[in-house]
C-alpha cells in the first residue's frame, strides 16, 4: 500500500469480510465450539494478508470501483488505478496533496503504535530479567501431570494472575506472595504448548496497520477473546467433575480485574466483559450438537472460497453517474487478450464510453472521462455507425501473436450497406467495417489500442478466404505462372449453433466478456491457392490444365508425402485462377513458417518443385 487509496481499498475489503464473519459467528454462536469460533478468524487474517483486488478479483463486493470513483472525484485524475502489491503500508510518496498528507498521518500513527508495542515488550522482558525465580516445583508438577512442557518461572509483586511472555524463550510469570491455582498454571502452559503468543503478535500487527478502522479493532478484541475461550476448552478437556466448576469460579473471580495486553504475552485474565463471554462458552462445554465437526468444516470452506478467491465483475455498472460508471469499467479488468478485444469491439458497436474504458490504456483514461454526456468516444469513426444495424456483433480475422501482445483485424458486418453504398446481396459482395487493433498487458489488465481508423471494405469471400481483407501471402514463380498461397484465420461467435450467412438470426449479447477465450467460439483456418498468368498473351492457348500439390500450413512435414493433387482446366476469363481452398481446424496464434514447399504441374506433365516465400508488403503484420 503506497497511498491512502490503496489503504482504503485494503481496509474496506477487510471490513466487508469482517462484517460477514461477525454475522455468521452470531448466527452460529451456540453451534460452533470455541475451536471453530477462533479458527474462522484465520479467514479474516488471510484476507488482511492478501493484497485486495489481486488478479482483478474482489471480496464480496467490487470495492475498487467505489475507491476509484472517490479517488478520481477528489483528484480529477484518471490515469492511474489503485493497485496493491503488498498489504502493508509502504513509505509515503507524494506529500503535496491532501490525500498524500492523510496517508502520511496514517503511516506515522501506525509506525508509532508498532514501535510502542515493541517498546512495551522490550520493557517487560527487561523487567522479567530482574524478577526473582519462582519455585518451579508446582509448575513442574502441573506439567508432568498433564504431559506438558514446562518453562522457566519468575515472580513479580503486585500481579493478580499469571501470564506467559515470549515465544523463543518463554517465561511463566506468577504473582509473588499469593498462591496460584494449578488450573491457572495449566491454562498458561497450554498457551505455551500451542504457541498462542504468535497469534497475539499477529493480531497486534494487523491492528497497528488498520488502527483507524474501528470494526477491525473490535474484531481484534473478539479474536483474542476467542483464543482465550479456545484455551479454556483445552483446559476443560483435561479436567473432570468438580475441577471444571472450580475453573469457572476462578474466571468469575477475575471479572473485575484490570486487563492490559502486551504483544507477545498471553494471560487467563482478559477483562470482565470478555470473561463473561468465556463463562457462557464454558457452560456450553460438550453441549454442542453432534455432527458439528463436519458442519464446521463446511462452514469454513464456504467462507474461505469466496473470501480468498473473491469474485470478478463481468459487467459495468449501468448508473447515471458518469464517474461511478467509468470507475466500475476501469476496475473491471479484462483478464485475457480476447476479452479486451471483445470489450473494444462492443464499445464500437454500442458507442458506450464505459466499455471503451474497460480496455483503454491508462494514458487515454483522462480523455474518456472528459467527454460530455452523449459525446461519442469514436470521433470521426462514429460516422460509419450512424443508422447502421449489424448482422452480428463482429468477427476476428488474422489473430496472431506479436511480441508480448496480439494483433488482429476486427470486422463489423452491417446488415445493410452504409448510406451511399450498394450491396449486391451476395456473400462475396458484403461490405465490412474493419479495424486493425493490438492488445497488450498493462499493469495486470489487458488493454487494446487501435492501429488505424475504421475502414469500409468490400468483401470478396471465396472458399472461406475473404480476399477483401488483408491475408498472409506466400508466392513463387513457375514458368509463366505465379502461384499465390493465401492464409487467414477467423473467429466468430456461435449463434444458435449456426454461423452461416443466410437469414437474420438473434445476435449474441453486446455486453463485454472480460474473461473471453476464443476456444469457445467457432473458429477456423482458411487457405486458398491461386495462380496468375504472367507470360505473353499469345502463349496462353498452349496451357490447358494446371495442378498444385502443397501441404496446409497446420499439417506436419510427415503429411507431405500423402498429399493429393488438385488439377483443373484453365479458363482465361478468370484471373487469378483459383486452384483450391480449404478451411476448418483449430488455429493457434503461432509464428508463421518462413516458407512453403509446393509442386506445380502444367498440362499433366511432371511435377515441378517450387518454394513459396512470404510477401512482406501484403497483410496487416510483418513475418
Description:
- By secondary structure, this protein is α+β, with helices and mostly antiparallel strands.
- Among the domains are: 131 residues, Nuclear Transport Factor 2, Chain: A (Roll), CATH 3.10.450; 134 residues.
- It is built from 16 helices and 20 strands.
- Strand 6 and strand 7 form a beta hairpin.
- The two termini are 43 Å apart.
Topology diagram in text:
Layout: H1 4-27, H2 34-39, H3 41-49, H4 63-75, H5 98-130, E1 132-133, H6 136-145, E2 153-156, E3 163-165, E4 171-175, H7 182-193, H8 196-209, H9 214-236, H10 242-253, E5 265-267, H11 272-283, H12 292-309, H13 322-330, H14 337-350, H15 353-359, H16 365-369, E6 390-402, E7 405-414, E8 431-442, E9 445-450, E10 455-458, E11 461-462, E12 465-466, E13 472-478, E14 481-492, E15 522-533, E16 545-549, E17 566-569, E18 577-584, E19 596-602, E20 608-614
Parallel strand pairs: 2-4
Antiparallel strand pairs: 1-2, 3-4, 3-5, 6-7, 6-14, 7-8, 8-9, 8-10, 11-12, 13-14, 13-20, 14-15, 15-18, 16-17, 16-19, 19-20
Helix pairs in contact: 1-3, 1-4, 3-12, 4-13, 5-8, 6-7, 7-9, 8-9, 9-11, 13-15, 14-15
> Beta-sheet strand percentage?
15-25%
Percentage of helical residues? 25-40%
Alpha-carbon Rg, integer: 36 Å
Note the main sheet: 13 strands, antiparallel
Residue stretches low in confidence (pLDDT < 50, at least 5 long) are 496-506, 556-561
Assembly annotation: single chain
Q: What would the average pLDDT be, to the nearest integer? A: 78
N-C termini distance: 43 Å
Counted by DSSP, the helix tally is: 16
Amino acid at each position: 500500500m503506497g497511498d491512502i487509496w490503496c489503504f482504503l481499498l485494503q481496509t474496506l475489503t477487510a471490513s466487508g469480510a469482517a462484517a460477514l464473519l461477525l454475522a455468521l459467528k452470531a448466527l452460529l454462536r451456540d453451534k460452533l465450539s470455541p475451536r471453530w469460533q477462533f479458527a474462522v478468524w484465520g479467514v479474516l487474517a488471510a484476507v488482511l494478508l492478501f493484497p485486495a483486488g489481486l488478479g482483478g478479483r474482489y471480496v464480496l463486493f467490487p470495492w475498487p470501483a467505489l475507491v476509484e470513483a472517490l479517488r478520481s472525484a477528489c483528484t480529477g485524475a484518471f490515469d492511474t488505478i489503485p493497485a496493491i502489491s503488498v498489504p502493508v503500508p509502504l513509505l509515503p510518496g507524494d506529500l503535496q496533496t491532501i490525500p498524500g498528507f492523510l496517508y502520511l498521518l496514517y503511516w506515522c500513527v501506525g509506525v508509532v503504535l508498532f514501535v510502542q508495542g515493541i517498546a512495551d515488550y522490550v520493557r517487560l522482558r527487561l523487567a522479567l530479567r530482574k524478577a526473582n525465580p519462582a519455585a518451579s516445583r508446582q509448575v513442574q508438577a502441573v506439567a508432568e501431570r498433564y504431559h506438558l512442557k514446562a518453562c522457566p518461572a519468575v515472580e513479580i509483586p503486585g500481579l493478580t494472575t499469571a501470564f506467559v511472555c515470549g515465544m523463543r524463550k518463554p517465561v511463566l510469570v506468577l504473582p509473588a506472595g499469593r498462591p496460584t491455582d494449578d488450573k491457572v498454571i495449566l491454562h498458561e502452559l497450554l498457551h505455551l504448548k500451542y504457541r498462542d503468543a504468535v497469534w497475539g503478535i499477529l493480531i497486534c500487527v494487523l491492528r497497528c496497520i488498520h488502527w483507524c478502522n474501528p470494526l477491525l479493532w473490535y474484531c481484534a478484541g473478539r479474536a483474542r477473546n476467542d483464543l482465550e475461550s479456545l484455551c479454556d476448552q483445552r483446559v476443560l478437556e483435561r479436567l473432570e467433575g468438580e475441577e471444571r466448576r472450580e475453573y469457572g469460579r476462578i474466571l468469575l473471580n477475575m471479572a473485575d480485574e484490570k486487563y492490559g495486553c502486551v504483544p507477545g504475552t498471553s494471560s487467563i485474565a482478559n477483562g470482565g466483559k470478555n470473561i463473561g463471554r468465556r463463562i457462557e462458552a464454558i457452560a456450553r462445554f460438550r453441549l454442542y450438537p453432534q455432527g458439528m465437526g463436519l458442519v464446521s468444516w463446511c462452514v469454513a470452506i464456504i467462507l474461505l472460497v469466496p473470501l480468498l478467491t473473491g469474485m470478478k465483475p463481468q459487467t459495468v455498472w449501468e448508473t447515471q453517474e458518469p464517474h461511478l460508471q467509468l470507475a466500475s469499467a476501469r476496475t473491471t479488468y479484462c483478464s485475457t487478450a480476447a476479452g479486451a478485444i471483445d470489450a473494444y469491439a462492443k464499445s464500437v458497436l454500442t458507442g458506450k464510453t464505459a466499455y471503451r474504458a474497460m480496455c483503454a490504456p491508462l494514458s487515454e483514461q483522462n480523455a474518456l472521462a472528459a467527454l460530455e454526456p452523449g459525446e461519442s468516444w469514436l470521433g470521426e469513426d462514429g460516422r460509419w455507425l450512424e443508422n447502421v444495424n449489424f448482422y452480428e456483433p463482429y468477427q476476428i480475422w488474422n489473430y496472431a501473436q506479436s511480441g508480448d501482445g496480439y494483433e488482429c483485424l476486427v470486422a463489423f458486418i452491417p446488415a445493410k450497406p452504409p448510406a451511399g453504398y450498394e450491396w449486391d446481396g451476395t456473400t462475396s459482395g458484403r461490405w465490412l467495417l474493419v479495424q486493425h487493433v493490438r492488445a497488450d498487458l498493462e499493469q495486470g489488465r489487458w488493454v487494446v489500442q487501435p492501429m488505424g481508423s475504421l475502414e469500409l471494405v468490400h468483401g470478396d469471400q471465396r472458399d472461406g478466404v475473404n480476399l477483401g481483407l488483408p491475408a498472409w501471402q506466400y508466392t513463387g514463380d513457375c514458368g509463366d505462372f505465379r502461384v499465390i498461397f493465401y492464409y487467414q484465420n477467423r473467429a466468430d461467435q456461435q449463434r444458435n449453433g449456426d454461423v452461416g450467412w443466410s437469414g437474420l438470426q438473434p445476435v449474441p449479447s453486446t455486453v463485454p466478456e472480460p474473461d473471453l477465450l476464443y476456444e469457445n467460439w467457432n473458429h477456423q483456418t482458411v487457405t486458398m491457392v491461386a495462380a496468375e498468368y504472367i507470360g505473353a498473351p499469345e502463349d496462353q492457348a498452349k496451357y490447358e490444365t494446371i495442378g498444385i500439390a502443397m501441404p496446409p500450413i497446420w499439417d506436419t512435414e510427415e503429411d507431405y508425402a500423402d498429399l493429393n493433387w488438385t488439377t483443373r482446366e484453365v479458363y482465361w476469363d478468370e484471373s487469378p485462377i483459383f486452384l483450391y481452398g480449404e478451411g476448418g481446424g483449430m488455429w493457434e496464434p503461432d509464428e508463421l513458417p518462413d516458407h512453403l514447399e509446393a509442386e506445380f504441374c502444367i498440362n499433366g506433365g511432371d511435377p515441378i518443385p517450387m518454394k513459396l516465400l512470404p510477401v512482406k508488403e501484403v497483410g496487416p503484420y510483418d513475418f
